[in-house]
Every structure is written in C-alpha cells, then in structure tokens.
Amino acid sequence: MNKFQRQAVVFSLLGAACIAGGMGMKDYIPYSPLIGWLFGLICQILALLSAIKWNREQRGPTN
Question: Mutual orientation of helices 32-59 and 3-24 as an angle, nearest 10°?
Fold first, then answer.
C-alpha cells in the first residue's frame, strides 16, 4: 500500500467512527450528533482527496 492509499483507508474508517461516536454519545453530550457528522464529513473529504492524489500518482505524469 502506498502512502495516499493508506491515508484514504484511514480517513474513511475515521469518518465512519466519528459519525458512529457522535450518534452514540447523543444522550451524554449536547450536539454530539452534529459534531460527529461534521468531523465525519471532514474525514470523508480528506479520504477523497487522498484517493485522488493516489489515482494521479498511479497514472504517472501527463505531458
């Protein structure tokens, strides 16, 4: 696995964990679902950017 591929996997899993954690803590912390979804969205966007970088690296330079 290269660096960008590993980052995409980690950010995807972290995004899912943030969403699940936010939903799980809704009885204990006010606004935790909102916070969890926001952090999850940020992590998913970072995963997408890492996947795009990995794809560009795989294709090689285009001249």
Answer: 170
Which tokens go with 28?
Answer: 């204990």
- Is the Cα dihedral 50, 55, 59, 63 positive or negative? negative
pTM for the model stands at 0.85
Tens of pLDDT, residue by residue, the chain (63 residues)? 788 899 999 999 999 999 999 999 999 999 999 999 999 999 999 999 999 999 988 887 765
Geometric angle at alpha carbon 43, from 9 and 30, rounded to 5°: 135
Single-letter amino acid, residue 3: K
